[in-house]
Amino acid sequence: MSPYLAAEDLSMFGHDPWWLVVIKAVFCFAFLMVTVLISIVMERKVVAWMQLRIGPNRHGPWGMLQSLADGIKLMLKEDVIVKRADKAVYVLAPIIAAIPAFMAIAVIPFGPAGNEVSIFGQRTTMQLTDLPIAMLYILAVASVGIYGIVLAGWSSGSTYPLLGGLRSCAQMISYEIAMGAAFASVFLYSGSMSTSTIVEQQTDRWYILLLPLSFVLYIVTMVGETNRAPFDMPESEGDLVGGFNTEYSSIKFAMFMLAEYVNMVTVSAVATTLFLGGWRAPWPISTFWEGANHGWWPMLWFTVKVQLLLFMFIWIRGTLPRVRYDQLMKLGWKVLIPVSLVWLMLVATVRAFRNEGYDFADIALYVGGGVLALLVLSFVVDMFREKAKQAEPPAETPAAFDPMAGGFPVPPLPGQELPPVPRRRSRSERELIVSGGPDTQSDGSLGGTTDGKEASDG
User: Fold this and answer.
1) What's the pLDDT score for residue 165?
2) Taking the model in full, what pTM does it have?
3) DSSP letters of 230-256?
């Protein structure tokens, strides 16, 4: 095995007693739920602060129980099932959307695998479980959540929810491709798909410094994957009334909202694990405090990083306006996917050279030379293309467009232009003529004089 490939040691997982597994699973669920409650209040407070508003200030001290009050209100509202809905699928869709959002947290490490903590006298790791293909597991369960949104739109028996579900499906699938390419760059650099191993590989330097473009790509794709502003096309109020969840109410509507916020927490935890060192303490703290990455402290650093990424979600929502759907898809297919594939090829080239024993200077020379050669080739191709375009005979002038050729007005085809509209008199000119003032055009046709009395005397 190459020295640059990670040695996975997952022997510490799978030996916990059943009651400890239940406790850890309940903790993961509680962590997500509490973080969601905090995120909802934080979002309303922060956006209000950015927009110079007050925000929630009625429920609890400083309005901190507003999200809890919203949840109680949604559960007590009337639960309506529309008449034309496929009832079985209509009820199952929110569940299918919410459950996969909770499943991804199972393989996220809250602490080092080698640092066991004591829970009721039992030594265990601060992670529910880990797999050799843990990141593929996260991608798989995230993909299942798309079915809940599509089925919600289809089962409602209404046109607008169906359109919203299809748009959401196309958006999430498009952005998952670039997200997978960003993951692949981390896999190549770490030599593993295990989350605990990926964090262990960031001992000296976080991957946000080694793979900055992968981090930027993942940040953009995770905003699109969670349907958050400015990519909140599935719930764009203006053109789809509410999107795929238009016909839902009460607890089923709340489950869609819960799934969105849990997905925000999950993708933030994944970004922390892959690029921000996971549970590791930030650089200034880890240098002068040896115990910063031992005991229960790693959970604090992990939680702080997740909260900072959630704040970034809120900041983006309060700053950027919603984009059009064609701009959203163009960004996904024409920008993110090509850039992620080129970056993945570049990372793979660097890793291949490193595995062969080349030092950094040689790798930079070879990669820089390859990039320069591609730029020169692109310049030459563009130059010849421009010369060929100039050598082409000029295109024939299209015939004049007559909008009334068929007896009724028709719009112009591509390449055709409407004839110029005749100049109309301004309002001041019309008022001058009506009040008895001179009309130069009509007076000029009667002999070129503006004095009507002289004309009659002559």
Assistant:
1) 86
2) 0.79
3) TS-GGG-HHHHTTGGGTT--HHHHHHH
Q: Which residue type does 444 have?
A: G
Asked whether residue 4 is assigned to any structural domain, the reply reads no
Cα–Cα distance between 22 and 19 in angstroms, integer? 5
Whether 130 maps to a domain, the answer reads yes
Q: Which three-class secondary structure state does DSSP give residue 419? A: coil
| H or E element, residue 401 | none
Distance (Å, whole) CA 416 – CA 288: 72
244 in Cβ contact with 164 (< 8 Å): yes
Residue 426: what residue type? S
Both tokens of 436, joined, read 């008895």
Rounded to the nearest 5°, which phi and psi values hold at 104?
Answer: -65, -25
Report how far residue 22's alpha carbon sits from residue 8's, in angstroms, rounded to the nearest whole number.
25
Number of folded domains that form the chain = 1
User: 283 and 230 in contact (C-beta within 8 Å)?
Assistant: no
Which amino acid would we find at residue 276? Answer: L
Domain that holds residue 66: 18-282+289-335
> Would you call 118 helix, strand, or coil by DSSP?
strand
- What is the Cα–Cα distance from 412 to 198, expressed in whole angstroms? 59
Helix (H) or strand (E) holding 274: helix 250-275
In this prediction, residue 434 carries a pLDDT of 55
Query: Could you tell me if residue 347 is inside a domain?
Result: no
Q: Report d(CA 135, CA 196) in Å as an integer.
A: 11
Residue 63 has pLDDT above 80, yes or no: yes
Average pLDDT over residues 99-111: 92
